[in-house]
Amino acid sequence: MRYDDWKSIVRESAPLIALMMLIEVGGGGMLESMSEIFYAVPALLAIVPMINAIGGNAGSIVGSRLASGLHLGTIKPDFRDREVLDNMFMTGAMGMAAKFITASFLFIILPLLGIAVGLSIWTWLAITLIASAVVLGAVLPAAVLASIIAFRKEKSPDDFTIPIVSTVGDFTGILAILLAIKMVGI
Q1: To 10 degrees, what angle do helices 47-72 and 121-152 make?
Q2: What string of H, E and C letters represents the secondary structure of 44-96?
Q3: I want to staple 55 with a disulfide (CB 3.0 to 4.6 A). Which of 44, 93, 103, 135 is the partner?
Q4: 125 touches 103 (CB < 8 A)
Q5: Is the CB of residue 59 less than 8 Å from the CB of residue 132?
């Protein structure tokens, strides 16, 4: 396959993107089902884009690094490759740190913007970190799996990994926030 042929890229990735859009609609429905919680604690809405964005970004970083390494031959298309595991671990650690810092910043800045948080810092951080761990635990293996499968099938990992990772991050993010909220007893 020629990776610079835009028509083949569109032809191969369009069905996947259409499927991912349907899954995203399902995620939106899940978010709507949580509206009661968000009415009770509106500040929780600030967590949604943070969880989804950093989860998707972390998965995209791993997917991109793997795609490059697979193309260059510096990474083997194997889940057990040391480079794959190191990339997953370091990206996961950076993702958790970024979410901790961002959640702490939000906890401070929201009241300054006139938005009451309505939760203790510990509950706020617990929701964020539980949801983050769930999202990263889903997104990072999804990025690796999508990259390796696409590469083995002689498809460009770049064309498949990002849509999959974005959708897994968004859908899992909403589910993870709901799970974390239930776990802390809200």
Answers
A1: 30
A2: HHHHHHHHHHHHHHHHHHHHHHHHHHHHHCCCCCCCCCHHHHHHHHHHHHHHH
A3: 135
A4: yes
A5: no
Q: Flag whether pLDDT at 4 surpasses 70.
A: no
For the whole model, what pTM was predicted?
Answer: 0.83
CA-closest candidate to residue 172, choices 18, 15, 31: 31
**Residue carrying structure tokens 């032809």:** 11
What is the average pLDDT value for the chain, to the nearest integer? 86
Q: State which fold the 43-184 domain adopts.
A: Tetracycline Repressor; domain 2 (1.10.357)
108: exposed, middle or buried (C-beta count within 10 Å: 0-12, 13-18, 19+)? exposed
